């Protein structure tokens, strides 16, 4: 199967039969699954081949990254058939390479085809384990039989596939598959677990008849090529040099294909992350991508898939349901109450009610629809129908009835209408996931318990106690109603799936607003901690300096705009507070601060490849705001202070206080000057219509600052030609002196071709004529190199 490939020189040193590191593995060598943990290592020690105990008494024959704490497994031979202690992998004298379980007396796995002429084996620094002849010709290699992971230099050919693991800790074959079909189409499929046949596609490269190989090169780019080498489709365009980063492309157990990176050396602060960070992934939203006629969908039957703040799909159960298998979050959800009887004599409709879940749907599970009807009609019709488990009431007045089991469940801001989930009243349930959309009232239960107590009391005490209970219950209801009305009137429409906090709760969380982590024109940001069950999470709480009319508008604008968004490169809004004059916003905490701190407060230039990733991430976030939101959002204040970095230095755009929302039929707006000096597009001062191109201009300035690791305006520099960064960059480009912009960044010098391309893109972005600036999607393509970047004109040549 494998072609004859001449390898880089491999050490001819013989290796001990019990394993070791760095040398060739001679005929007759073996490893045993036991507590000695013997391995065969690559010359650099980066990879190891051997046995890993993954369950009590169960061993996996695998290859893993051996220089990091996680020791991430990237290949295995017996994922579906673990072996016991004492099993051996042996390279026999006749060239056979076999895994045997001596206790069962049988062969578990063998490298095939068995080939005579094998002279030795080797664990290579690429992560490939090979059997080779004396001529160094490869007879068999692990790269040709991948499990769920690809590595740089590994080629994925037609008729190859990756199969996701069952879970994070169970490496057996799971529910998802990536396949490069013989027709050239690269496809992600759901699998008919546990049988293994495919059900339906949920992502495709759309290249039937063309795709030939999926390439993962040493620069970290992952792309599909045609037979003639033409690039057809890019899976990851955010390059990361293999010399600086450990990398892998893994089809994770949740069905998402992710490109992971892990720095090989410490960062500028002298520390090194203890986990992989995600460089790119697809599909962008798994919850919306999977919609299949058979099977339960992304999370299993009766469950709901929601994209979390970390852009990973999360599976929850609706009210009244709990996980079928607590150890398998993709197992689906079971009903925790007695189903409604279809016996007409039982007449048990009074025992059931509904849990309202906005922005929720289970597509393809409906068996009847009616419309236009009122919501009350929809509720009553589902209540009267013993087959109806859920009714979806849409904004168009259509009522869709669904029966169990429900499939393809999703929670997403793009989902219209709401789900009415039928549940049994007063039943004791064992739900493991709280309904994120409602807080149950215990008033009815309180009255029932109180009534029981009254039966055993005197008449006078009964009346007194009953009056007191009713007084407090209705007073509580009144307060709750007033609070709901005030929140409804104050917070702009469109806010979904975010939490309302009390002022005292946030005051306690921030220790009295004690630890300031940032300040802006109208607010200060404080670090806080919140408890979620047994977990403690850090948050950033934004508190206005004063409550004036303009601050009130800023608050409403920010809540309205960011609550409509959901993207990995936008800071996630977790909630808000609106109590009297106290209005605060609660965001995810970004431990690595702002891009301004990262760029301008480091004694030496930050890592070049990390800056490249930040450039891509910021562009992706803007592209989402401009072109992928239901309502286009112009940020209006893009600058390094408003780009924040998470624990893995992933860039996320923040501060939507100046954002301008446009309806679908709008492309421009007229408004007062917004933004920060130095990043503000010229049209703000020229009484011209404001479009998304103002963000493109600001991004261009930010990109130049990223490239040159300096501020856009430096009045104290010795050379007056370098005062304004955009002007200096264009002069260097026009004069063929791009190298002057690189300064002493040797890594950037080694990547000078890309550096120059980025400078050209930035110059296009800062054109004074808005019509000349590209849209953000084209900016993305130019940064990636998928489209040619033409020579930019002088940015100041615009004539009004």
UniProtKB/TrEMBL annotation:
EC numbers for this chain: 2.7.11.1
GO cellular component, one term: membrane
Subcellular location: Membrane
Alphabetical list of InterPro entries matching this protein: Bulb-type_lectin_dom, Bulb-type_lectin_dom_sf, G-type_lectin_kinases/EP1-like, Kinase-like_dom_sf, Prot_kinase_dom, Protein_kinase_ATP_BS, Ser-Thr/Tyr_kinase_cat_dom, Ser/Thr_kinase_AS
Domain Protein kinase: from-to ranges: 511-784
Record's bilayer topology term: Single-pass type I membrane protein
Classification via SMART domains: B_lectin (SM00108), S_TKc (SM00220)
UniProt-recorded Gene Ontology molecular function terms: ATP binding; carbohydrate binding; protein kinase activity; protein serine kinase activity; protein serine/threonine kinase activity
Superkingdom as given in the UniProt entry: Eukaryota
Binding sites annotated in the UniProt record for ATP: 543
Protein name as annotated: Receptor-like serine/threonine-protein kinase
